[in-house]
Amino acid sequence: MYAGIVKSAKAAWITLLLSLAVVIGLFALPAQENEASTVGGLSDKYQTTQVNELLEQFPDAQQSSALIVVSREDGGELTEADQAAIADINAAAAELGAVGPPPQVPPIVSENKLVGLVPVTLEAAADDGDAVAAEVESLRGSISDAAPEGIKAELTGGAAFTADLAGVFSGANFVLLTVTAGVVALLLLITYRSPWLWLVPLAVVATIEQAALKVVDLLAPVVGIDVDPSAVGITSVLVFGAATNYALLLIARYREELRLHESKYEAMGKALTRTREAIIASGGTVILALLVLLFTDTLSYRGLGFSAATGIVLAILSALFILPAALVLLGRKLFWPFVPKVGDTGREGKFWGKLGEATARAPKRIAGTAVVVLLAAGALLFNVQIGLSENEQFTEKPQAVTAAETLAEGFPAGSTSPVTVLVNSDSAEAAAEELAAVEGVSSADVVSENNGVTRIDVVDQYEPGTAEANAFVEDLRNDLAETPEYDALVGGEAAERVDQLEANQHDLTLVVTSVIILVFLVLVILLRSLVAPVLLVASVLLTFVASTGISWVLFVNVLGFPALDTLTLLYSFIFLVALGVDYNIFLTTRARENAMTMGTKQGMLSALRSTGGVITSAGILLAAVFAVLGVLPLVTLTQVGITVAIGVLLDTLVVRTVIVPALTFILGEKFWWPSKPAAKAGTGGRHEAPSSGDDSHMESLPAPAGAHRAGTR
After folding, report:
1. What dihedral angle (degrees, nearest 10) is formed by the CA atoms of 190, 194, 196, 202?
2. How far apart are alpha carbons 666 and 58 in whole angstroms?
3. 3-class DSSP state of 70
4. How are beta strands 108-109 and 116-125 bridged, if at all?
5. How large a percentage of the chain has pLDDT more than 90?
6. Do residues 530 and 673 make contact, with C-beta atoms less than 8 angstroms apart?
7. How far is Cα 577 from Cα 673, in angstroms, rounded to an integer?
8. pLDDT tens digits for 352-388?
9. Can you tell me the distance from the alpha carbon of 238 to that of 308, in angstroms, rounded to the nearest whole number?
10. What kind and span of H or E run contains 649?
11. Per-residue pLDDT for 550 more than 90?
12. CA–CA distance, 629 with 168 (Å, rounded to integer)
């Protein structure tokens, strides 16, 4: 089937034109309205989600609110004149429809007179993100203009945080796509050293990335999954990285086959036959790992799982159909100035061959040293902190954060995000009195009532997301649960952080367990072995622990992040394990193929020579692509990008290069147990590996001697 698409120019043209027609058809389809519900961001077994679902039925459910924060630019106390100016600032907000206290009501000024506060309700509905962002921007400009010289008027609160978070992703996809494409183009140009060749995989990958996002846009509403902007950005990066990796593997094998076959169609057919299993297994592993996210409690994980899995499916299809067709139509000259000719000897492999031979001479010492170093790196996680506060989410603080920090100088830190308590209306008065008396509570006000349920907003002294705020919410829930007639539910930003931590623990346990089992089963099927899969899974887990430890030290001591975000560990695990196995699949499938003709030891040495360059190039490229996530000013994506980048480099340069070959040399034929691929060679592993040339890693060696005699001259 795969070889048939490139058996002639006609077949290749048909494949390309059909693919182009499908892509054009996709973009011609209108996007559907997404009716998926992601209330609260968590499944409905958590109190936060239950509270948000009930609040949707309240009369004021569609209102969005914000806080105008007034302070002196010099940080001093507000004078009487400054306090009087707050009325003018409030009037300016009212002209734009933001409803605050009447002008005759004195402004709310902190006891230390450092901060003035004006709560306002916006005209824009809370569920209309674009309208909220537009009104927040206009309101900020208006109150800033109304503030007299020396006075600073800023906006924070729920609507402001919503607007600033949306601002992070405003145009972010374009920036992310542009930087990613630039990084991929540069690395492909360096890898192939050809002025033309890099354009083909880049064009195919860029097209398939956009097609993937369109498919997700079309299917997400149908399956009832909401894909948030961060998931879209990660999907773009993942598709670019994975699809380019598959392209590097295919092109390397195609070049190798061009040295053995006169016909470019036959060469591509052989290349597809030899690489399709590794590409499908690698991509399938990533897809299965991502689909596990559909069973998590965190709805943003589900969106990412669906979006990214869809992208990887298209990446596999592009590597097996579109890219081969494009390559054969353009022919050998595409590789200029290093055009492969029949009978040529591959020039790469010297460096990797020497490294493999050095490892083979002392495999136990080298593997042991590498494992100890990685374990030591993992030990750096001993004091890791997990969970960022609301004000710690951004690498570049937007006004919502700076205004919240100013507000905290004079008012309780929880003022920007009150804890929402829903109780039985018959017990509302008693509940409010009890809440007001709780230690750490500044106020507990009855806000509204609907259908027998009363909302009480509780302002506490703790910033949402901090350990103190988390403990306060847990204690509050326990205290309210002791009075069953309240039928109380606790929600709001601070409570959602508590629920997120619990959900993340559940999700992490589910994902880690499931992904390890799935990856192991894929490797068992692919390698027909039980020993090799155990060792390969252990190696990628070691990589994850080591890269996370190194990243944690970097985050704390260099970037100044106080903790890992709750999303960082799970995202990093799933990408590192699923993608890290890719390189081991590329290496071990080639080693197993070679073992059938030359034995396990020489088969691994030959596999190192022939795949070392392409896997290293792929790893460096993937690491660079994930590092691009750092262009977005969100701590979570920066942490994920850096952790995955470090992990991919460790996996590419240490685990795949040293540890896995060393384990193979130590175990010999037992590495493949219970199968015995070397037995088919009849050599007992005594066959000598083919000689290698220089240490360039831009091209691939010919296949092992005797593998394709029929196609050579």
Report:
1. -30
2. 68
3. strand
4. antiparallel
5. 22
6. yes
7. 23
8. 778 888 888 899 999 999 999 999 999 998 888 887 7
9. 7
10. helix 635-650
11. yes
12. 12
- Tell me which long-range contacts 708-711 makes (C-beta under 8 A, separation of at least 24): 708/257, 708/260, 708/261, 708/270, 711/257, 711/260, 711/261, 711/262, 711/266, 711/267, 711/270
Q: Residue 116: what residue type?
A: G
Report the alpha-carbon distance of residue 165 to residue 690 in Å, rounded: 57
CA distance 551 to 645: 10
Give the torsion sign (CA, 565, 395, 137, 68): positive
Q: Are 574 and 516 in contact (CB under 8 A)?
A: no
Q: Is 696 left (phi over 0), alpha (psi -120 to 50) or beta?
A: beta
Tens digit of pLDDT for each residue in 610-619? 888 788 888 8
- Residue range 187-200: average pLDDT? 82
- How much of the chain exceeds pLDDT 70, in percent? 88
What Rg, from alpha-carbon coordinates, does the chain have?
A: 30
Pair 268, 8: CB distance under 8 Å: no
Measure the CA–CA gap between 587 and 593, rounded to whole angstroms: 10
Question: For strand 419-424 and strand 151-156, is the pairing parallel, antiparallel, or unpaired?
Answer: unpaired
User: pLDDT tens for residues 236-270?
Assistant: 888 988 898 898 888 888 888 888 888 888 889 88
pLDDT tens, 497-514?
889 888 988 998 999 999
pLDDT digits (tens, 9 = 90+) for 639-648: 998 999 999 9
The angle at the Cα of 329, spanning 324 to 334, to the nearest 5 degrees, equals: 90
Q: Which of 64, 237, 90 is nearest to 159 (CA)?
A: 64
CA distance 109 to 456: 23
Cβ 434 vs Cβ 452: under 8 Å: no
Q: Which run of H or E residues covers position 151?
A: strand 151-156
* pLDDT higher than 70, residue 706: no
State the pLDDT at residue 33.
57
Nearest C-alpha neighbor of 350 from the set 585, 605, 686, 668: 605
CB atoms within 10 A of CB 319: 31
Residue 587, amino acid: L
Q: In what order do the strands lie in the sheet with 419-424?
A: 441-450, 453-460, 419-424, 489-491
Cα–Cα distance for residue pair 6/267, rounded to 1 Å? 10
pLDDT, tens digit, for every residue of 527-541? 889 999 999 999 989
* Average pLDDT over all residues of the chain: 83
Q: Which of 587, 120, 604 is nearest to 360 (CA)?
A: 604
DSSP notation for 210-249:
HHHHHHHHHHHHHHT----HHHHHHHHHHHHHHHHHHHHH
Q: Give the list of residues 6+ apart from residue 194 with CB closer than 8 angstroms, or none.
A: 334, 335, 336, 337, 338
Q: Where are the beta strands (DSSP E) in 412-528?
A: 419-424, 441-450, 453-460, 489-491
CA-angle at 703, arms to 679 and 601, nearest 5°: 40
Residue 392 has pLDDT above 60, yes or no: yes
Instruction: Quote the pLDDT of residue 554.
Output: 92
Nearest to 447 by CA among 473, 420, 424: 420
Q: Where are the beta strands (DSSP E) in 318-440?
A: 419-424
Give the H/E segment covering residue 369.
helix 363-378
Contact indicator for 678, 589 with CB cutoff of 8 Å: no
Alpha carbon 465 to its chain's center: 22
- Taking the C-alpha atoms of residue 613 and residue 619, their distance in angstroms, rounded to an integer, is 10
Is the CB of residue 333 less than 8 Å from the CB of residue 311?
Answer: no
